């Protein structure tokens, strides 16, 4: 493509005392491919030599235009001044200390055109001040999701995935900004509001640059511990609330319905309650996407509050079924996902459903972390999982103390672990209701085997997720019903545009029995013998030590991102010593991967001849299993085909049918 036919874009770069890292950012802007770049810099009365750096580039490159203020005006006002200089069809925001990928603007403008949007934004990787990668995805590290494409972007003032320097938009947005808002520290809500009042936004769900985290960022690094998160929340709460109020005021310019909310904001408690009610109502009507998401928030919050209120005064509201989990899970956990899926399905079928997260605090020492967790459970008593889209009809209660009295009155109570089984059994005896025990693994890694077996013998109806678990119980003279886990084939499906991916994928974990060491060993050999083979890992843990430099690690991927990882891979590798079920392997099969697994009980149990099985703990056999599938296209195609057939047979809804039938059968005698 000739330079004259490339789309023209003006990059807006506000600068204030950024001389140390400024040159690297400017170079990455001027090196953009597929677009005709103009760089407009505005120095906001810097005192550290930044202006001199900018003058050098203006003299060297005709694409650079420099402006300067005599007095410091602040970031947002400087952005407003820069926006007035845009004459090209597109403009892009830029920070002074980051690094752009060479195709950032080309990809973003392509997204604008293909999706008919007026503003695009993207994920970024985070790096330290020396450029070393800290997280491969800013969104994943902060558990963020793209915003609804239309309507007042109110969600952005609570969980904002839009970093200002990722914004690429049409010129009409710059022209629609108007007067600079007062009191606003961040310009994202300003530009987003203007854009959404003109059309829609779109997200590019891949990193298009490196966001440099250091001590001078407006948005700093995410705290690494629970105590640090709580401490920062309390310390920054007043300023964050002020930022939100200012952002709402800014949105009111473009969305008249928001002004109804801002008028009710005040210092008195009644005024804040009224504002909150108005805000919830607005969030559920501004757009179809927001209505779906926030109607769930509204309904579940009201249900949970009603439930907790009844419990406080002793007038317990009876629900059809209550699942009891051992504490909340801040990151994706396979066993929790299974419970959440059953809860959502039962709720959508018309049953009233509650989930209680009981932290097993009696098993833990009284440490500063536990004191912090107690405070967190009290502050977020109805906190819902952020990584799973739980049905709005499911109420959630989080209890720090594992007490029988913490459970609501329910027609069926479901234990989900060796820790919660005794508590559920005691409540079942007390209330004389139906009790189930969903057994998802041999939990001898948390308690002695004798205690696990003791929980199995409690007077609860037993369900197991794997055939090997069924054998374990039957070998002890215990009956159980097999309900194998299913897969959501709407998410985990093959890519119709290509027959297969090209790389190898594996899940890694800090848990020793997941055998990350075997994954590292196999990937080290593969990277040495097949240097062009894409190798990827994912998990909730940090990048494991020892992984070859060329291996991509994705931390806490969303379900959609995980499905993309499966589809991009030819072989999935499961290295665990033992698995209750092995849901990721099933997801990989459903997405079109051939699977190599150790003989860990769970995966061979549900997959049978649909996977290539090697001895557990054998690094050589695991590596050779992967090599065999990569070298033999016919064998690979055979395992892939078997995997797709088996995955189609495993359906969560069918498993839920068995669970529901057991509950209904147990309820009938009391209703005659």
Show the helix and strand layout.
Layout: E1 8-15, H1 19-30, E2 36-43, H2 50-60, E3 64-68, H3 75-83, E4 90-93, E5 99-100, H4 104-115, E6 119-127, E7 133-135, H5 138-141, E8 168-170, H6 171-175, H7 188-198, E9 201-212, H8 226-254, H9 256-262, H10 269-283, H11 288-312, E10 319-325, H12 334-348, E11 353-358, H13 368-379, E12 394-399, E13 410-415, H14 421-431, E14 434-439, H15 449-456, E15 461-464, H16 467-474, E16 481-482, E17 503-507, H17 516-529, E18 535-539, E19 552-555, H18 559-567, E20 569-574, H19 583-590, E21 594-598, H20 602-607, E22 612-614, H21 619-631, H22 633-649, H23 652-671
Parallel strand pairs: 1-2, 1-4, 2-3, 6-9, 10-11, 10-13, 11-12, 13-14, 14-15, 15-16, 17-18, 17-20, 18-19, 20-21, 21-22
Antiparallel strand pairs: 4-8, 5-9, 6-7, 6-8
Give an overview of the whole structure.
The protein has 672 residues and is α/β, with parallel strands linked by helices. The protein has four domains: 210 residues, Alpha-Beta Complex (Spore Coat Polysaccharide Biosynthesis Protein SpsA, Chain A); 72 residues, no CATH class; 179 residues, Rossmann fold; 148 residues, Rossmann fold (3-Layer(aba) Sandwich). It is built from 23 helices and 22 strands. The strands form three sheets. Strands 1, 2, 3, 4, 5, 6, 7, 8 and 9 form a nine-stranded mixed β-sheet that branches. A seven-stranded parallel β-sheet has the order 12-11-10-13-14-15-16, with helices on both faces. A six-stranded parallel β-sheet has the order 19-18-17-20-21-22, sandwiched between helices. Helix 1 links the parallel strand 1 and strand 2. Helix 7 crosses helix 8 and helix 8 packs across helix 9. The protein is globular. About 5% of the residues have low confidence.
